[in-house]
Amino acid sequence: MEDTYRTITNQSEGLYKEKGSKFIAFAFPVQTEEQIKDYITLLKDEYFDARHHCYAYVLGAKRDKFRMNDDGEPSSTAGKPIYGQILSNDLTDILIVVIRYFGGTKLGVPGLINAYKTAAADAIANAEIVERTVNRVFTIQYDYIVMNSVMKIIKECNPEVLDRRFENLCTMVLSIRESEADALLARLEKVETLTLIS
Questions:
Q1: Are 139 and 173 in contact (CB under 8 A)?
Q2: What is the mean pLDDT of residues 59-77?
Q3: Which of 17, 57, 66, 126 measures 20 to 30 Å from 91, CA to CA?
Q4: Exposed/middle/buried for 18, CB within 10 Å: 0-12, 13-18, 19+?
């Protein structure tokens, strides 16, 4: 099962100029549609005098949330080529906005597609790309007396411990990459008094 994905770590910019028109691209790492709306609003306020603010985004490790917007450009000449660059670089959790200042000469459909594609590609080329793992997070509870058994499993399977509370009843929040989660859970479930909360 695929349990890694590629994304960018920092905001980056790209630029493309053609026949007086200027295409400024911005790439942002994003996790929610709320963040996306905020970035688009911010850019529309800052570049209020630009003719078009076209964008595409992809969210989620499975890349199942995505959207393209041509913002007044001819259909499929802006959002789709931007989206195409995100896909061809195998990225997710990313928003790319390309702002166009019109230079007075029409570029035609092939010219627009090339301009938006090239500006988006430039922004991606200037970003730092990282590979992340898809992790499963769960909470376990157990009696203090089985602490050694639990800690031995954690040492051997090496999940990330996000939170821990050691009292008579101990609680731990663990995070581990998806492909290793079932093996860890199978071992933990053999520990007496241990219960999986979520």
A1: yes
A2: 95
A3: 17
A4: middle
